[in-house]
């Protein structure tokens, strides 16, 4: 599992008003046997991630807090203050997905439980000199 976490929200989370998590789950087209992206799709996956972040973070309506890659999936986890806008933007922007199959979930999460879980899970690694981005 590869996890990138936005450390800027440690100690601040949950951010008031951003009370729903949004999970954008992208299926890798050609994952390696270990479930991570192949080098052939790395550039497309990076471009997709940038476009999704631009799309959802526009106007500070959503905050990207986690990116998790594992088992042939890349999950981008956001917290949003505007559920209806996220629904509309993702529906209107199917073209940014570069042929990747994707799924979306939006759930109430006022306490930022997903983010808090990963903060706790990654804390021992960071104390031992590990890093996360």
Question: Can you put this structure into words, describing what you see?
Answer:
By secondary structure, this protein is of the alpha+beta class. The protein has one domain: Alpha-Beta Plaits (2-Layer Sandwich), CATH 3.30.70.120. Helices cover 31% and strands 28% of the residues. It has three helices and five strands; from the N terminus they run ββαββαβα. It has a five-stranded antiparallel β-sheet with strand order 1-3-4-2-5, sandwiched between helices. The longest helix has 16 residues. The chain is globular and about 40 Å long. The relative contact order is 0.26.
Could you write a compact summary of the structure shown?
With 133 residues, this protein is α+β, with helices and mostly antiparallel strands. 31% of the residues lie in helices and 28% in strands.
The N- and C-terminal alpha carbons lie at a distance of: 14 Å
Query: What's the CATH C level?
Result: Alpha Beta
Determine Rg (CA atoms, Å): 15 Å
CATH topology: Alpha-Beta Plaits
Largest sheet: 5 strands, antiparallel
Query: What is the SS-derived class?
Result: alpha+beta
Strand order of the largest sheet: 1-3-4-2-5
CATH arch. level architecture = 2-Layer Sandwich
DSSP helical segment count: 3
């Amino acid at each position: 599992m590869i996890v990138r976490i936005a450390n800027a929200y440690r100690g601040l989370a949950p951010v008031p008003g951003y009370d729903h998590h949004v999970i954008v789950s992208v299926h890798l087209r050609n994952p390696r046997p270990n479930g991570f992206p192949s080098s052939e799709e790395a550039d497309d996956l990076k471009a997709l991630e940038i476009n999704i972040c631009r799309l959802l973070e526009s106007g500070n309506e959503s905050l990207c807090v986690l990116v998790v890659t594992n088992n042939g999936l890349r999950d981008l986890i956001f917290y949003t203050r505007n559920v209806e806008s996220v629904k509309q933007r993702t529906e209107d922007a199917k073209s940014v997905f570069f042929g990747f199959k994707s799924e979306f979930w939006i759930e109430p999460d006022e306490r930022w439980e997903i983010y808090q879980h990963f903060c706790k899970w990654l804390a021992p690694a960071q104390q031992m000199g590990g890093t996360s981005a």
